[in-house]
Specification:
Number of helices of chain C: 9
CATH topology of one domain in chain D: Dimethylsulfoxide Reductase, domain 2
Chains: A alpha+beta (282), B mainly alpha (489), C mainly alpha (204), D alpha/beta (735)
Radius of gyration of chain D: 26 Å
Largest sheet of chain D: 7 strands, mixed
Oligomer: heterotetramer
Distance between the termini of chain D: 43 Å
Radius of gyration of chain C: 21 Å
Number of strands of chain D: 27
Shape of chain C: globular
Strand content of chain D: 15-25%
Strand order of the largest sheet of chain C: 2-3
Number of helices of chain D: 26
Helix content of chain C: 40-55%
Shape of chain D: globular
């Protein structure tokens, strides 16, 4: 048995804080930037995700029970505090596309009893469906609550014939009792990375993007390889002064928009959000 | 009260004693033959009332099984669990049962180690309770799993997939700890029963005799057997002590290592262990009263023993209360704003009833144990012990549900989430399952340790002798060591 | 050593031994299963195909490279069943065998422009992704191993079979056992590397 | 390579369909198997087809009139997913949710699979032979139908479909092509034409420094949302433009506004004049404006405007101030301003601002002239339908053919279209799904889905020159009994006019011939085949055209005050158009039903939006079931407390409440079309969608509102969506 494997890789079982230069030697570290000033809340990303990742439509009753299965959801807030201070939301609504943050120090990873979710070499939180036993500990521990559990055997009802012909053969159809979540369209990345490896190169910037980023009509979602210093994402992280390996970002000046959500929980997310702008003089 | 403490002749004789001596744990009139007779009587053909209760429990259990089968077939969705309420009653009740399983071991192992003899008449059924509560708790681990049929993925064993479970997960620790604890508790219970099984063997006929013969492993009560037995039993007790503490500490890490507000607390391990002992002790009081009444064990389950048990329960309750309050205090004065909001939510939000119910049942009710009338009135005590356990169940509920209802992420807050009938059914079924197991146990195995009560009687007499009390003649006549009676007890 | 201790030691050995032995065939593709007609230990059943395709003639006697027909193997995740016009490309010109029943069947399918409903022999679970392209590129093109070895590691010695039969375990442990081995990076090079250890490489 | 019709279909031949079933079994096959699943080979695929690798084919989205270029990912003969086509200037590689869901329309389980014919008791499935027989008998060469006896009712239509349809009608000496769109833009277009000389001017959103939008949801349910969204993204980059939105109910676009003002419905024009009043105080704006305009605008001083519109006097001044500070600006009118009795005047007043602000030629221009006017899109509105309804009711109409519209569902209750349909002896519906209108027809013909058919389209809104969008099948047709719309028309035409049409074996060859014939216009020198292949490959044929100049006509109409609230009906009723549901034709797409409406996050339902203040006054809680009663009818729906709405207004989304349209649409929500008051625009006669007045009645019931948000929709002190003052941001330094 692979006892040797276990011993050899024992250090991998430890959960470490991300450190400076962690991905210097690896070809890929997938990351994202979401510009909240560009996001118009149109839900194109959500539907694209349904199409790409075989997400089941659960129906009204189950949605009402909190059993929705949208890996990316558009949240709409009215204010930062607890109530609306003005009579009307004068500065519009606050849209937030929320998906798995692919944390570098993910709270979900160390608690999975079977290691169904773990950190991949390219910096993603994997979710191995067939390994999952459904303890839901990962979801309990996820501060963003972006993990979705198959409360029902959705394949039974979600794709009445011939809707199932639309299913993406590269993505497993999940049956009941399995946790699932955004994978950064791993199937696309995997296909791209394999092809690039055959060609003896690494993926070019923008060669493969997630379904949400591809659909986004305002290009609010930028997806790319943070390990490649010349990629758009890496440059954006740099100009926004967000460091993957820091939990408190030091900004040299005001007006730099980048931030990561719930960073103070030391999750080190891989998604940087850019602050929404409003012309307060108007 | 039906049972009165016999007067002590030594009071007149013992001039050197300045204080009123302790009440004796057992009455003067207990003799060895009576012990066998009384205890073996409890194994006789049950009365109709037994079957009525037993089948009610079975019905309850069957309903639980039906709920679980329904959930298994249809999906976890029937439980109305959702994102973020992913755990619900299953984990709450799991912790409740695990907690119940702690005092039996404490009574038998810890008190055994420190030679507190009053444990002897009551430790057997407490241990049985431990074993069955653990078995019930283990069921909840399975019930809770989304893919029950893949539960073996959690177990570390060489397999064709060449993968191991994730050793950093508290759930793996849980599985390991509970497995170990269950095995050792079962072994400890069984081992302690061997001499008694021999007695049963010698008094039984037919299939029962075969069963006892098989289980008593050829116990003859020889000197060597007694010697080995004592050593092994003490070793097991020493092994179990830290294990019992570790199990609930580990269960507490399910919460303590997580991110969630209200869980992220360093005092959780002692808090959980004490909570476990608390609920376990009140469980023991409940069963004490029930067994005492049903099997007419008045002679062995005496008021002094109960008094000690109550004192211990009260002490544990107070430590637990302290830990609970200190947890609130640290949260309140701490810097974690979300945890503070969560605390306020618990006390004032959708689950305030459960919160204050817990405070009342588990923090206020123990003070009634200070009243002598309560301690001596078995009916009242029964009700109070049940209330204490309701409080402890509510405590588990309000650790889990409000935290999920209001965690770090406002978008996924839930308002007034409530479990479905399936969850309640399975929880009810678990009580049926426990009752069933315990009732069967009581009718198959002696629920009071015969040989140890005998020891106790003997020691009490020896004690009296040494200190000049006059022992009844029929007891001193039997001699000091059981094996002197031709290997039979 | 007294009886008790002996018992414990034996029980322990038996438990470990049993699990190791029972896991063995899953890992190595080994001893259980029936024999193929060619004397191989097959793990899979005999699969009845619409045409009893003689691999032994094509790959064995004719020495045709696997990838001549399974042309997608080096370009795609799936090796793919050869397209019908590929079969016809040759068999149109081979007059000698046109009257054989199997070839007649082939011509029939072609005439109807109907695909042949082959049965899958090496069918991994649906949650597993196996990339033929990477394996072929790595071992056939990069390391220059013979095609018989490259394909045969998972598919067995197909050149000796008529229709294919599964002779290897194809289990997860079996895959990992190879991924953990050190393989030469290039022909002639001494640098070795082992297969990736990332769950998402194979699980989708 | 040859791309003839048959070849093309051949190489799409579905040979791996069983693979799809295997995918669904998904977690079913969890073991290593042999001999269970089938694996089929291709017979004779194109060389670039590799199993396991998707191939993208360009086509055109037909979900709305925007005409976005799309690419379908095709694998093993199945179309799996749609992406935007980077070749098209309209979509520029992007796609909206509505477009994505087109695959579900194609694979929808409730698609009509065979023709249906009315017999006693209802529609029954029949064979094509029988259907063709009936068609021929009624419409074939022997038909005596003539002129207005035959009517062809369609939704928006463009391209060769339009040409063929007009030719078809011509063969009956008829021009009776009735266009109907439930959410019509006719009023707005007429007003634009009156002021600017263009029905749909080109809006250079990206060039504007300030956009003042009067209820135009250009990012959501607008005229070309994907294109506008891309423009909007540029508009928000440095130097960042400001968006001010004025509307009674916050739309998706309103949610993105820098400043959002709730206005009393119908008073938009008055506000525009109030702003104009402020602007004209400035010399630079005042010059060139005719005196009559000056005279009229003078009445609209800040105080009175503020009183009528409910927008503070200082706000009017503030808006005007920003307009003169931020040039060029862009003022847009939308359905919120159009849908009133004086909608036309409203829009005229609003467009006047563009003229005063001299935005013409900068941010607002004319669309490029269309090289093929016969292919240009046609849009309809309510008035045409009303006229048809009268004709039908009076028995003039002998045959009614319906395609791409569902008037039985969308007509208000004052126009009982289903009743008048009964007077027509022969009604044919061309549909992919049996909707309410088709359910009332005598013959229902199953069409190919948009993923299976050929076609050409011209978008309503052409941002860059003119694009002829080519639609091509992305996969083999699923149901052998379904046929293309063009093919059916062509078949009849061939019978009626054998000389002109026998040359075309099918609609595909008709399009191909027509497009190839137009090659010189596109200034292409390739061979015909090459030109056509290129068109199919790119999915779009571009015609370079320059934006045209707009001429301003400053003749101003008076903008009367809208009808006020009455005691019986104390609320304005604003039906909202969801970006994904539109007029309701997409309600059968489960992805869209499950996709939360962004502003409320409600799914699978209809609801009534009420301002918290109003709700508190009426003691309405979220989830209370309300009866919304207008003079013409009532509907029941749950209440949703929504701060983004004018307090005297209640709003309900359109598109739900189907009684027929498959399992995903029927029984979901209610249909607010049926409670619209018969108020018409004074100038165009169009139905005023926003002019209804209603009253609310509580039923005492309370239901769980099925929505994505939890009990709070505030961030509660967590930094989730942070907002920064635009002045402080250093956008120019960003990448």
């Amino acid at each position: 048995m692979s006892l040797s494997n276990l011993i050899k890789n024992w250090s991998n079982f430890r959960t470490r804080r991300p450190y400076e230069g962690q991905y210097d030697d690896s070809p890929y570290k997938w990351a994202m930037v979401i510009d909240l000033d560009s996001c118009i809340g149109c839900n194109a990303c959500t539907v694209a995700c349904y199409a790409e990742n075989n997400l089941p439509v659960v129906g009204k009753e189950r949605f009402g029970k909190g059993h929705a299965m949208h890996w990316i959801r558009i949240e709409r807030y009215w204010g930062e505090g607890e109530t609306l201070e003005t009579e009307f939301p004068e500065r519009g609504a606050q849209y937030l596309p929320m998906l798995c943050q692919q944390c570098e120090a993910a709270p979900c990873e160390p608690v999975c009893p079977v290691g169904a979710t773990h950190h991949s070499p390219d910096g993603l939180n994997t979710q191995v469906y067939n390994r999952c036993v459904g303890s839901r500990y990962c979801s309990a521990n996820c501060p963003y609550k972006v993990r979705y559990f198959n409360w029902w055997n959705y394949p039974e009802r979600a794709w009445p014939n011939p809707l199932e012909l639309q299913l993406n053969p590269d993505v497993t159809v999940r049956s009941k009792g399995v946790m699932e979540k955004c994978t950064f369209c791993m199937q696309r990345l995997r296909a791209g990375m394999d092809k690039a490896k055959t060609d003896g190169r690494i993926l070019a910037d923008g060669e493969v993007v997630t379904a949400c980023a591809q659909a986004c009509p305002t290009s609010a979602i930028t997806f790319g390889n943070l390990a490649d210093k010349n990629s758009k994402v890496a440059k954006m992280w740099k100009t926004q002064q967000v460091d993957l390996a820091k939990n408190v970002q030091e900004k040299t000046e005001d007006g730099i928009r980048g931030y990561r959500i719930l960073e103070d929980l030391n999750t080190y997310p891989s998604i940087v959000y850019l602050e929404r702008l409003r012309n307060m003089a108007s | 009260m039906s049972h009165t403490v016999p007067s002590h002749p030594q009071m007149d004789v013992q001039i050197e004693r300045k204080f009123v001596p302790k009440q004796k744990d057992l009455g003067e009139d207990v003799n060895w033959a009576q012990i066998n007779k009384d205890v073996l009587r409890s194994l006789e053909k049950p009365r109709p009332a037994f079957w009525i209760i037993f089948f009610s429990a079975l019905a309850l259990f069957s309903f639980g099984v039906y709920c679980e089968v329904y959930q298994y077939q249809t999906g976890m969705g029937v439980s109305d669990l959702n994102n973020p309420q992913v755990w619900g009653l299953y984990i709450a009740t799991f912790i409740f049962w695990i907690g119940m399983g702690h005092s039996g071991t404490l009574l038998s192992a810890l008190l055994h180690i420190i030679h507190a003899d009053w444990r002897k008449p009551i430790y057997r059924y407490s241990e049985a309770m431990t074993t069955f509560t653990l078995m019930t708790a283990a069921l909840f681990v399975l019930v809770h799993m989304g893919r029950l049929w893949q539960f073996y993925y959690v177990v570390a064993y060489p397999n064709e997939r060449w993968v191991w479970p994730n050793f950093t997960s508290p759930l793996v620790w849980d599985a390991t700890a509970i497995g170990t604890y269950l095995t050792s508790s079962l072994l400890f219970l069984y081992m302690g029963m061997i001499p008694d099984l021999a007695i049963c063997r010698d008094n039984a006929k037919g299939a029962r005799r075969a069963l006892y013969k098989f289980l008593s492993l050829g116990w003859q009560g020889t000197d060597r057997q007694w010697g080995n037995f004592k050593v092994a039993y003490m070793t097991m007790a020493c092994f179990l002590m830290p294990l019992a503490v570790s199990v609930h500490s580990i269960v507490s890490t399910d919460f303590a290592v997580s991110q969630n507000p209200g869980w992220h607390v360093t005092s959780f391990p002692p808090y959980f262990v004490l909570g476990a002992l608390y609920s376990g002790c009140s469980g023991i009081i409940t069963l004490f009263i029930v067994l005492r009444y049903v099997f007419r064990f008045e002679a062995y389950m005496t008021q002094p023993i109960l008094n000690k048990l109550i004192k211990m329960t009260f002490a544990i309750a107070m430590v637990w209360t302290y830990l609970d309050l200190i947890e609130y205090a640290t949260t309140w004065y701490g810097s974690d704003e979300v945890a503070r909001q969560d605390l306020v939510y618990r006390a004032t939000g959708d689950y305030a009833l459960q919160f204050w119910g817990m405070i009342f049942c588990a923090m206020v009710m123990p003070f009634t144990l200070l009243i002598r009338f309560v301690r001596q009135n078995y009916v009242v005590l029964l009700i109070i012990s049940l209330i204490l356990n309701v409080g402890m169940w509510l405590e588990r509920f309000q650790i889990i549900t409000p935290t999920f209802a209001k965690s770090h992420y406002p978008w996924t807050w839930t308002a007034g989430w409530w479990p479905s009938w399936v969850q309640w059914g399975i929880v009810a079924g678990s009580f049926g399952w426990f009752t069933m197991l315990f009732m069967l146990y009581c009718k198959i195995f002696p629920s009071v340790s015969m040989y140890e009560v005998k020891e106790m009687v003997h020691e009490q007499n020896m004690h009296d002798k040494l200190h000049g009390a006059q022992a009844p003649a029929h007891q001193t006549a039997l001699g000091a060591i059981p094996e002197m009676n031709g290997g039979k007890i | 050593m007294n009886y008790c201790k002996k018992l414990f030691v034996w029980m322990f050995l038996i438990v470990i031994g049993t699990s190791l032995v029972s896991a063995e065939p899953f890992v190595q593709g080994g001893p259980i299963g029936s024999q193929t007609s060619d004397g191989y230990d097959a793990l899979g059943p005999v699969v009845e195909q619409p045409i009893e395709f003689p691999h032994n003639t094509h790959a064995g006697r004719m020495q045709i490279n696997c990838m001549y027909c399974h042309t997608y193997a080096r370009r795609s995740n799936v090796s793919g069943i050869p397209r019908l016009d590929k079969c016809m490309g040759c068999h149109n010109l081979i007059e000698g065998v046109k009257d054989r029943p199997r070839i007649k069947k082939l011509f029939e399918y072609w005439a109807n422009k109907q695909p042949i409903p082959w049965k899958k022999v090496h069918d991994l679970p649906d949650f597993v992704r196996f990339n033929h392209e990477r394996h072929i590129q790595r071992f056939y093109f990069q390391e220059k191993r013979p095609v018989r070895e490259t394909c045969g590691y998972c598919h067995g010695y197909i050149a000796s079979m008529t229709t294919a039969r599964r002779v290897k375990a194809l289990s997860m442990g079996w895959c990992i056992s190879c991924h953990e081995k050190d393989h030469l990076e290039k022909v002639g090079s001494t640098v070795t590397s082992h297969g990736p250890n990332d769950c998402w490489l194979c699980h989708k | 390579m040859s791309m003839g019709n048959m070849d093309r279909r051949d190489f799409l031949r579905v040979l791996g369909i069983s693979g799809a079933a295997a995918t669904l079994a998904g977690c079913g096959n969890t073991a290593i198997e042999s001999g269970v699943e089938e694996v089929m080979s291709y017979v004779q695929p194109q060389d670039f087809v590799v199993p396991g690798i998707g191939v993208f084919y360009a086509s055109t989205c037909t979900q709305c009139g925007s005409g976005c270029g799309i690419m379908g990912k095709v694998r093993e003969g199945r179309v799996l997913k749609l992406e935007g086509n980077p070749e098209s200037a309209i979509s520029a590689g992007k796609i909206c949710g509505l477009g994505q869901a087109a695959v579900q329309a194609h694979y929808n389980p409730d698609r009509l699979r065979t023709p249906m014919m009315r017999s006693e008791g209802g529609l029954i499935p029949v064979s094509w032979d029988k259907a063709t027989q009936m068609l021929e008998q009624r419409l074939g060469p022997t038909s005596t139908l003539k002129g207005d006896q035959i009517a062809f009712l369609t939704g928006d239509i463009s391209g060769h479909q339009r040409v063929l349809l007009e030719n078809f009608l011509e063969s009956y000496d008829s021009t009776h092509h009735v266009l109907y769109d439930a959410i019509s833009r006719v009023t707005g277009q007429a007003a634009s034409k009156a002021v600017l000389g263009a029905e749909q001017p080109l809006l250079n959103i990206d060039k504007a420094r300030l956009i003042l939008s009067f209820g135009n949801d250009f990012l959501g349910a607008g005229v070309s949302p994907v294109h506008m969204a891309a423009q909007y993204a540029k508009f928000r980059k440095a130097p960042r433009g400001t968006l001010i939105q004025i509307e009674p109910r916050m739309t998706l676009t309103g949610g993105n506004a820098d400043r959002w003002y709730p206005i009393k419905p119908g008073t938009e024009g008055i506000l525009a004049l109030g702003i104009a009043h402020d602007l004209l105080q400035h010399e630079e704006f005042a010059k060139g404006v005719p005196d009559e305009v000056h005279a009229l605008v003078k009445q609209y001083d800040q105080a009175s405007v503020s009183e009528i519109t409910g927008i503070g006097a200082d706000a009017v001044h503030l808006i005007a101030g920003q307009l003169w500070n931020n040039s060029p600006s862009l003022v847009i009118a939308g359905p919120g301003a159009e849908g009133h009795a004086y909608g036309f005047s409203n829009v005229v007043a609003i467009q006047l601002l563009n003229v005063i602000l001299a935005n013409r030629g900068k941010t607002i221009e004319g669309q490029a002239e269309h090289p093929f006017p016969q292919l240009a899109p046609l849009q309809g509105g309510y008035r045409a339908l009303a006229k048809l309804h009268e004709q039908m009711a009076s028995g003039q109409c002998q045959a009614l053919l319906i395609h791409g519209t569902n008037p039985v569902f969308t007509s208000p209750s004052n126009l009982p279209f289903a009743d008048s349909m009964e007077k027509v002896p022969f009604k044919v519906a061309f549909v992919t799904h049996l909707d309410e209108t088709a359910g009332n027809c005598d013959l229902v013909l199953p069409l190919l889905s948009a993923m299976e058919d050929f076609g050409t389209h011209v978008a309503d809104y052409q941002p860059n020159g003119v694009e002829l969008m080519v639609q091509q099948p992305l996969m083999e047709k699923l149901y052998p009994e379904s046929r293309g719309f063009g093919d059916i028309l062509l078949d009849i035409l061939k019978k009626r006019k054998p000389d002109s049409y026998t040359a075309f074996p099918d609609y595909y060859s008709y399009i191909k011939t027509a497009v190839v014939k137009a090659k010189p216009v596109f200034k292409v020198t390739d061979s015909d085949d090459h030109f056509w292949e290129d068109a199919l490959r790119k999915g779009v044929i571009k015609w370079e055209g320059k934006p045209t100049a707009l001429e301003a006509k400053l003749s101003l109409l008076e903008v009367p005050k809208p009808r006020g609230l009455e005691a019986d009906y104390p609320f304005y009723f604003v039906p909202s158009v969801r970006p994904d549901m539109r007029d309701g034709r997409h309600a059968y797409l489960p992805w869209l039903q499950e996709s939360p409406e962004t502003m409320t996050t409600i799914v699978w339902d209809s609801w009534v939006e009420i301002h918290p203040k109003t709700a508190a006054e009426m003691q309405i809680r979220e989830g209370d079931v309300l009866v919304v009663q207008s003079a013409t009818g009532s509907v029941r729906a749950v209440a949703y407390i929504f701060p983004g709405i004018q307090p005297d207004t209640v709003s309900m989304p359109l598109g739900q409440g189907h009684t027929q349209l498959g399992r995903f649409a029927t029984g979901v929500g209610v249909n607010p079309y049926k409670i619209l008051d018969p108020v018409f625009d004074a100038h165009t006669g169009e139905l005023a969608l926003h002019a209804t007045r209603v009253t609310l009645r509580k039923t005492g019931e309370n239901q769980n509102v099925v929505k994505d948000e939890g009990p709070t929709n505030f961030q509660n002190g967590h930094k989730l969506v942070a907002t920064l003052d635009a002045d402080q941001a250093k956008l120019s330094k960003e990448i």
